[in-house]
Design goal:
rod-shaped; 11 helices; D-Maltodextrin-Binding Protein, domain 2; WH-like_DNA-bd_sf; 291 residues; alpha/beta; Arc Repressor Mutant, subunit A; 3 domains
Length: 291
């Protein structure tokens, strides 16, 4: 026995409206059409579902049990329709973003704050990793942001869009001997105790490659996970670190970013799937308008 969903919905409407006549008006059907659906539903079950009671109906025991299930079907359909309506207007939804630490900490919070003013019903879930970890999590996110001198290998269907150019700077305390310098060479930095990011960080890879290209062997004293850990180690006087200029652009504390000579630049890149969700598309439109 396979029940007809339309008959269940009609039955739930008849019960809620208190009779066939009112239900027919609600459903924009004729009374005979509604009665016919009820009859077919009872035939399928082999049990009476209701009795006439004046101008209304009185449910049997089976009818009461079936109505509880039919109403769940009606509620689920109403919820699904509400979701479809909200997606059509892109007023609600969820966007899962995986971002490497520089855009995740210093670029996207301002973007999200501005976007939330425009689309407060769209929930954004932002998680920060190093660049290598971001590429491993793309299957579980809607959009991704990475940093580096080149675009990483992408899953099928994804493509890259350059958002902006970033610059890597040497990070020192304001009382450091290099603090008065407008720029600093890798040769000079190779004599300092250096603090690098963890393995998998594109910033670390780019800094290490720059030293190799210059034929230099840096003195690396510490390797720490995350921008915040590097900044704190520099703040404590443990050495010279490296970070995005974005990481110190609003810093009025004891840290200072010094340009490298020659400059060490990289791209901030947005990674987009081939068929982004409606909510993601709205965020992408907002990002284009900000540029």
């Amino acid at each position: 026995m396979r029940l007809n969903p339309d008959q269940l919905l009609t039955f739930a409407t008849v019960v809620r409206e208190g009779g066939v006549s009112s239900a027919a008006q609600r459903l924009h059907l004729s009374q005979p059409a509604v009665s016919n659906q009820l009859r077919k539903l009872q035939d399928s079950l082999g049990e009476p579902l209701y009795r006439r009671a004046g101008r209304g109906i009185a449910l049997t025991g089976v009818g009461q049990r079936l109505y509880a299930q039919a109403q769940r079907v009606a509620d689920a359909l109403a919820a699904a329709q509400a979701l479809a309506d909200s997606l059509a207007t892109v007023e609600t939804g969820q966007i899962r973003i995986a971002a490497s630490q520089t855009p995740g900490a210093y670029l996207l919070p301002a973007v999200i704050a501005g976007f939330r003013q425009r689309a407060p019903g769209i929930d954004i879930e932002l998680a920060s990793y190093n660049s290598h970890e971001v590429t491993q999590r793309m299957a579980d996110c809607d959009l991704a942001f990475v940093e580096g001198p080149r675009v990483p290998a992408l899953p099928a269907g994804w493509h890259a869009q350059t958002l902006d150019e970033d610059e890597i700077v040497a990070l020192v305390r304001r009382d450091h001997v290099l603090a008065g310098s407008r720029s600093v060479t890798l040769q000079r930095l190779s004599a300092e105790p250096l603090i690098l990011r963890e393995r998998g960080s594109s910033l670390r890879e780019q800094v290490e490659q720059a030293f190799r290209d210059a034929g230099l062997t840096p003195r690396v004293d510490m390797r720490l996970a995350g921008v915040a850990a590097v900044k704190e180690a520099v703040r404590q006087g443990l050495g010279v670190g490296f970070a995005s200029r974005l990481a110190v652009r609003h810093d009025r504390g004891p840290l200072l970013g010094i340009a490298l000579d020659p400059p060490l630049r990289r791209q901030l890149t947005l990674l987009v799937p081939g068929n982004p969700s409606a909510a993601s598309t709205r965020l992408l439109t907002y990002l284009r308008e900000r540029r």
